[in-house]
Amino acid sequence: MTSTAFDSAALAASVPAGDAPAVALTIAGSEATGGAGAQADLKTFQELGVFGIANLTCIVSFDPKDNWNHRFVPVDQEVIAHQLEATTAAYGAESGAPSVLDTVKIGMLGSPATISTVASALSASAFKNVVLDPVLICKGQEPGHALDTDQALKAQILPLATFVTPNHFEAESLSGLEIADLESLKAAAVRIHELSGAAVLAKGGVRLAGPDAVDVYYDGETLEVLSAPKVGDVAVSGAGCSLAAAVTAELAKGATPLEAARTAKSFVTAGIRNRVASGAPFDALWQGGPR
Ligand code: PXL
């Protein structure tokens, strides 16, 4: 098993001084309190030495008067398409930019319409790395609507992904398998790879029993268990977003998928150790934790 100690000297060495930084795009929702979503992605990109770009798909505002459920407002499809158009013109393959944008992270899309808009944009530009955090259900979303969104995500975005980071619930949904222990988490990672062709980092997190937070990486050849001691038994806001964003940042800098997964696990473990408390009933991961 790989243990996790964040190596800030190695990180500094991986960011070339003076050269244009690598760029990465997140297509994600805003989460107003800054713990999750595009805000978490941009902070992660910055910490890992990557120039971050965010194109927003929706705005989520927790409702403190309703058990902190999510109030969800989609961004107009035209506005999503405009953001993607601007980003591609500025940093895409034809832009002449010194660092070409070839790495994108997909976070919360939130509706079948947004999924179609994003799928068309992704199909039109040749991204080398498409990291999918398959955010399936948003707390407080209407279940029928969420089901349509799940099916559209599986049909239209999953086939475009080169790297997928499902949590326990999402791994069960994508694989169709029940996940109760490490062996079933491994089986789910293998199944999701077979379905998508992508490298998979399936997260057991706090959901599997035992002293360690265990994730499984599988890319069709290498199966590696990434493990770190659990920090508490409650999930921290932004852990999933930051993990996928850290994978994205590392891929943008040229890391292999397995290296990216290892660095991301260390980054998130350090961020959870240094988490931020607030008036909300959950803590948020601190991307500055590794420092
Ligand atoms: O952590 C999943 C997530 C992703 N994106 C947005 C969110 C959340 C959870 O709150 O609000 C915008």
Word description of this protein:
This protein has nine helices and nine strands. By secondary structure, it is an alpha/beta fold. It has a single domain, classed as UDP-N-acetylmuramoyl-L-alanine:D-glutamate ligase (3-Layer(aba) Sandwich). The protein has a nine-stranded mixed sheet with strand order 3-2-1-4-5-6-7-8-9, sandwiched between helices. Helix 4 packs parallel to helix 5 (143-157). The structure holds 3-hydroxy-5-(hydroxymethyl)-2-methylisonicotinaldehyde. Residues 28-29, 31, 36-37, 60, 107-108, 135, 240-241 line the site of 3-hydroxy-5-(hydroxymethyl)-2-methylisonicotinaldehyde (PXL).
Summarize the structure.
With 291 residues, this protein is an alpha/beta fold. Helix content is 40%, strand content 20%. 3-hydroxy-5-(hydroxymethyl)-2-methylisonicotinaldehyde (PXL) is lined by residues 28-29, 31, 36-37, 60, 107-108, 135, 240-241.
Question: How are the SSEs ordered, and which strands pair?
Answer:
Layout: H1 8-14, E1 23-31, H2 37-47, E2 51-63, E3 69-74, H3 77-91, E4 103-106, H4 112-124, E5 129-132, H5 143-157, E6 163-164, H6 168-175, H7 182-196, E7 199-203, E8 212-218, E9 223-229, H8 239-252, H9 257-273
Parallel strand pairs: 1-2, 1-4, 4-5, 5-6, 6-7
Antiparallel strand pairs: 2-3, 7-8, 8-9
Helix pairs in contact: 2-8, 3-4, 4-5, 6-7, 8-9
Highlighted features:
UDP-N-acetylmuramoyl-L-alanine:D-glutamate ligase; 291 residues; binds 3-hydroxy-5-(hydroxymethyl)-2-methylisonicotinaldehyde; 9 strands; 20% strand; nine-stranded mixed beta sheet; alpha/beta
